[in-house]
């Protein structure tokens, strides 16, 4: 029988973070079987380890309840923690549809393991006027509510995310969008989430991520979007001199999450956090 693990990622509290399904041994499972498991689990994504290459690299696939996705950050963090709890902390290499991912875990006595993924090379481009206007229309956000210090961009960190910065915390908190309209905008452009952020300080951001492609209104913690955002900050010369960014996500939906973003070599970005089982 296939063992299906349930974790919450980017939180040390089971009531916070982003819920993730983890299947550490999915050898021989068909695409339809994995999709059915993801739909039954009902979380935004479930990760499946479908094999191991000769060099030890784990072959990993990701499914939302609706479809396969190339990459998902929070379930990768959950995978790292689940693997470390069973086999010890260390470094794993993952082969994903988005490209190779490094996944390192560390453990301290009395604390959950911490996992850090290092993304594929990131890149970003300015959003077009049409992309911006249709998205703002679906969000019901006036353009005047954006922070001009952070230009709208489409950023990639394993999948594409539109980055929009709110000028105030109140604007970010007031998320009441047209689900069908935003779903259509994102489907046309193959965006995974819209990364809505507000800058609290040079090193601290708050984020919300509408996620209609995953069949949910909002994602509680989005590792891939955090990686894309880190690349966005680097490319625009906005990454802080401290070398790390903290992202608070999920608080407005009652599932507070904490993500740590640092830059890595080769245009890559590292995103770290912990995960705990849901019992």
What does this protein look like?
This protein has helices spanning 31-41, 73-87, 129-139, 169-173, 179-189, 223-235, and strands at residues 5-9, 18-23, 46-52, 58-63, 68-69, 91-96, 99-106, 114-118, 123-126, 153-156, 160-165, 191-199, 204-211, 216-219, 244-249, 257-263, 269-277. With 279 residues, the protein is an alpha+beta fold. The chain has an eight-stranded mixed beta barrel with strand order 1-2-3-4-6-7-8-17. The mean pLDDT is 96. Helix 2 packs across helix 6 (223-235). It starts with a strand and ends with a strand. The chain contains six helices and 17 strands. The radius of gyration is 18 Å and the shape is globular.
**What are the low-pLDDT stretches, counting only 5+ consecutive residues below 50?**
none
Shape: globular
- Please state the CA-atom Rg, rounded to the nearest Å: 18 Å
Helix segment count? Answer: 6
| Percent of residues in helices | 10-25%
Average pLDDT score: 96
Q: State the order of secondary-structure elements, H for helix, E for strand.
A: EEHEEEHEEEEHEEHHEEEHEEE
Q: How far do the termini sit from each other?
A: 19 Å
How much of the sequence lies in strands comes to: 35-45%
What does the largest sheet look like? 8 strands, mixed, barrel
Secondary structure: number of strands: 17
Question: Short description, anyone?
Answer:
This protein has 279 residues and is an alpha+beta fold.
List the helices and strands and how they pair.
Layout: E1 5-9, E2 18-23, H1 31-41, E3 46-52, E4 58-63, E5 68-69, H2 73-87, E6 91-96, E7 99-106, E8 114-118, E9 123-126, H3 129-139, E10 153-156, E11 160-165, H4 169-173, H5 179-189, E12 191-199, E13 204-211, E14 216-219, H6 223-235, E15 244-249, E16 257-263, E17 269-277
Parallel strand pairs: 2-3, 4-6, 11-12, 13-15
Antiparallel strand pairs: 1-2, 1-17, 3-4, 4-5, 6-7, 7-8, 8-17, 9-10, 10-11, 12-13, 13-14, 15-16, 16-17
């Amino acid at each position: 029988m296939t063992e299906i693990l349930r974790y919450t990622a980017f939180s040390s509290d089971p009531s916070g973070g982003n819920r993730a399904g983890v299947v550490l041994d999915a050898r021989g499972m068909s695409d339809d079987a994995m999709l059915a498991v993801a739909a039954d689990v009902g979380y935004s994504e479930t990760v499946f380890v479908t094999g191991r290459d000769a060099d030890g690299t784990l072959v990993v696939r990701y499914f939302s309840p609706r479809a396969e996705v190339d990459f998902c950050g929070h379930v990768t963090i959950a995978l790292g923690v689940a693997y470390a709890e069973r086999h010890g902390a260390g470094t794993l290499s993952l082969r994903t549809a988005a490209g190779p991912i490094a996944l390192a875990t560390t453990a301290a006595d009395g604390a959950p393991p911490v996992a850090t993924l290092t993304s594929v090379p990131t890149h970003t481009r300015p959003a077009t006027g049409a992309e911006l206007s249709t998205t703002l229309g679906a969000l019901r956000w006036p353009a005047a509510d954006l922070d001009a210090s952070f230009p709208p961009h489409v950023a990639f960190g394993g999948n594409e995310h539109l980055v929009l910065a709110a000028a105030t915390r109140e604007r970010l908190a007031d998320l009441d969008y047209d689900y069908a309209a935003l779903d259509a905008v994102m489907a046309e452009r193959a965006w995974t989430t819209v990364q809505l952020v507000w800058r609290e300080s040079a090193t601290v951001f708050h984020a919300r991520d509408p996620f209609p492609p995953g069949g949910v209104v909002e994602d509680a913690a989005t590792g891939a979007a955090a990686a894309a955002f880190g690349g966005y900050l680097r490319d625009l010369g906005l990454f802080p001199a401290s070398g790390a960014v903290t992202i608070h996500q999920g608080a407005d939906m009652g599932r507070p999450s904490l993500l740590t973003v640092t830059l890595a070599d080769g245009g890559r970005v590292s995103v770290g956090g912990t995960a705990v089982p849901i019992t």
